[in-house]
Amino acid sequence: MKKRSFLVIGLIAALFVSGIGGSLPAQAQDENILIVATQLDDVITLDPGRAFESTNLTVHHATYDTLLEIRPDDLTTIVPSLAESYEVSDDGLVYTFVLREGLQFASGNPITAEDVRFSWTRLQNIKGNPSFYADPIAEIEVVDDLTVRVTLSEPFPAFPAVVTAPAMSILDSQLVIEHGGTDAPDADETDMAKDWLDQNSAGSGPFILTGWTPNSEITMVRNENYWREPPALDGVVLRDVNDSTTALQLLERGDVDIAQNIDKDLADQVMGNDALRLEIGQTLNITYLAMSPSDTFGLPLSDVRVRQAIAQAVDYDGIIDQLLQGYADRPAGILPLGVQGSDPSIRYEYDPDAARALLEEAGYGDGFDLTLYTGSGAPAGIPIETLSAKIQADLAAVGINVSIEMQPTSNFLTAFRAQELPFLISTWTPDYLDATMWSDYFSYPDRGVSYRVMLDSETIAELASEAAFESDPERRTELYREYQQAQVDEAVFIVLFQPQSLDATRAELQGYAFHPVYFLDFYGMSKAAE
Prior knowledge:
By secondary structure, this protein is an alpha+beta fold. It contains 18 helices and 22 strands. It has two domains: 3-240, 3-Layer(aba) Sandwich (D-Maltodextrin-Binding Protein, domain 2); 286-500, Dipeptide-binding Protein, Domain 3 (Dipeptide-binding Protein, domain 3, Roll). It is globular.
């Protein structure tokens, strides 16, 4: 990194020190620094090859670039980013990407085809949670400094969409290697760059990561070497504020510029304040109940009739209309509304009498005990305690006695990934915009969320695979409809809602843009002069 960049980082970081873990510095609002009140308790790592949560998507979009991107003003079109262009062979196996000339990382190092090869090979070989984004890749060949040829193991029509995912970001290979990184076949054991990448970025995005204090804040400064025009903001601070009311109070005082994902019952308060603005974004997130069908846990959930009963015991309208104030909808299964093949007409409806009949048929007419596991936080602005209590009350009405075990989100995710939680509430957010973003993770017994709950359905896996590799759009849509029906029948993942996102901002903030993958795109934002 150039000395000039170090000086900028040092000066801006100094402004942040007094705010870490406490009140924001009074002078922060006098600086051209965007401060966001949000929840950071999901952050486990900021290494792009290992991170697989939600907050990192915002951070990585701000600090790294991908070859292709999908912009918030047109979510249906994939456009060039670091790549100037790309071509696909007639058989759909070979993608040739040509980089723009003269690009450089924040460090000043040139961006080359070798950085592409290194980044995607490292992603494959460190075998982190997002590594299978690169699974379709059979070979990566550096043709020249600006050209990279990627050969897939089989045709995969969604590959351009996958390339837009933050996990597919292009890293400064020289910088990563200097800090212990490697793309070697044994990178899962020998790559030592994680600790450095948790506190620094090695990208070419509009901002540079300068630090992460767990459960406190993440700081970024402007990348003066950004290949487009540098951003208007000098820096960005993501500050951990776990209570929406507190976040809104900070916003009203002018201590923060954005209160992200506020509780829905605060919307009227925001709209009634001329100094604030309410921004509503339609997400592709899903908040769902997961029920393991495996006999491993020795629970009634292994009986599909019990899972279907639970699916009909939930008062979905009560959750959406009362807890979410109507700022949500509900798909039938894990494919959100707006995604290819999603058909809401086949979704489960609230029918406690049908639920009781199914439980009686399964031999559980007298009910049973069940533990519901959750992380902390507030999915879609509902405190998890409130949502859990609603599920608890709904299931009690059909004879199922639910106890609730809430854990810090990082602990919850660790246990979830270790196949330790048979009944839980969780949320899924996309990393790219294609149906495979859901079907690849909720379908196969050896990976993704389906692995975590031990779902092993040959029908679901076969339909997911066939749809993913189908190139005819009409046939692909039909396959995904069949896939959605199979998921509904299996009743392992029951979607509670697909929320809208409510962000409250200062009225003077310019260029706000919501994105269903990255959530916030800081590049176009600016703070108007007082």
